[in-house]
């Protein structure tokens, strides 16, 4: 048995005996789970772990790894003229929000209203 295997086995034993996992223990348990090829329930059963705790840590790590959403600054050089706003084929803009929501912004929009709408939609998630 290699040293690394012994270390992983010791970490799994400590994790099974503990009501609290440190970040390092959780990382070691998740790595062992991923290389095992087992289901969460089977891995947890074999190592005396609670499957819910394993799922919770798995979800937490996935959320930490997910790219964060960020607003990109937009600078409007000058407001469009009333004629440009009414012109056929005037350019519009589409904003893609979390979870696939889209907002189509037509020329002449009010930036403050748009910002409030985006905040309200993002907070509703």
Automatic annotation (TrEMBL):
Which InterPro entries does this one have?
Answer: Transposase_8, Trp_repressor/repl_initiator, WH-like_DNA-bd_sf
Checking SUPFAM superfamilies in the record gives:
TrpR-like (SSF48295)
Superkingdom of this protein's organism: Bacteria
- Entries under Gene3D superfamilies matching the protein: Winged helix-like DNA-binding domain superfamily/Winged helix DNA-binding domain
Can you say what this protein is called?
Transposase
Q: Whose protein is this, by species? A: Archangium lansingense
